[in-house]
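Hello Y.,

Per our agreement to keep a running log of every chain we model this quarter, I'm adding this entry. I've kept the format consistent with earlier entries: sequence first, then predicted structure.
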Amino acid sequence: MEISIISREIIKPSSATPNHLRTHKLSRLDQSNIDTFISIIFFFDKAPKNSDRLKTSLSQTLSHYYPLAGQVKDHLSVDCNDNGVTFVEAQVVAPVDMSDVLKRHEFDPEGKLVPRKEHEMLEDQSIFAVQVSYFGCGGVSICFLIRHVIADATTAANFIKSWSALSCNGDGAVINDVTILDGTSIFPPRDDSGMSASSGGAHKMLFSSTETLKKRFTFEGSKISALKEKIGNRPSRFETVFAVIWGAVAAAKREGDDLVATIPVNLRRRMNPPLPDQCFGNLHTIIQANWPTEETTSYSSVTEKIHELISMVNGEYVKKAHPNGWLLYLVTNNGNGRLDTIRRRLFMISSMCNVAFYKTDFGWGEPVLIAPVGKLNAGDHIVVELLDTIDGKGIDAWVTMSKEDMDKFEQDSAVIAYASSSSFV
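Predicted structure for the entry above:
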């Protein structure tokens, strides 16, 4: 796929950030993230070009989400200097049609629809970038890169929905008030650059150069409902899909592997008192699940264990049990004194379900597909990203793993029974 760049601009907030808000402090939860990006792409059918409206509404939205237009200063703070964000417009060169792109598992392996290279953004400490790409058929994609050191999936979703509302409805849009919380008052930071989100050591250990595959597996709502009934303990959609994928991965794990699942949990409603859903930042924690395979032979046991783990999470639990962030701990501590013959493999699963992404309308109508973009070369680790299907009832699971693991995963009887991937190439 070839593209032609129409324009590349810097969009600044429509109003200057007040001096007393120029420094956004990073909490311990911010610091515990590997310094990577939330990357997501939306595809719209038959969308007219509306560049001026997009830029104006983006500028207005950045005034509410002003840290996104700044720069990471160090492992303790962000300089909210209104430097702005990269906004790219591009034309996809014919004869590539958007419908053909959407049939692929990896529809943009070369990153042509992505606004910037992640390593470039890490080098200049920028936080956010967006690219709008127009297809000859009339379709359009819009791709977001948001740095994880400052925002979690909920923050990213709130920003995207706010921008789309302004773009679609102009000054008549209703935008929920954004709370830029000083998270350091709840989760004091570590003044230790070696364990900060900006530390490159953990990033290199986790994201290796080993070749991996990324494929989409669609769990239709009807099949999830049928499996929930079969399990019988009223699991959630997430718990049900987790059980199928975990079971397939655990069945195929190699001798000597120590398989550890990591699951982000949103803390906003779990705090005491609860925090608004519109709170900006990283207000999630990573929990870990590490069970002997013989204890998770049934989906009922898996869903019960996951439900129990997630239910115990609140602000006090995070402070006591996860002072340094589990993901960094798991990556940088090889087995915590266990035998060197034990190989720790991470099964990293995250969910952006239940955020009504398919109701997003920039003035082009609702999207026809939403997906994580890019491929993490995670070596022997496994990455699973979950999003709602377009009807809001099913789940698209975007699975990244080695070719050896993928060959086994695709042949698992439960994956074949409950998930579909045959319509993609």
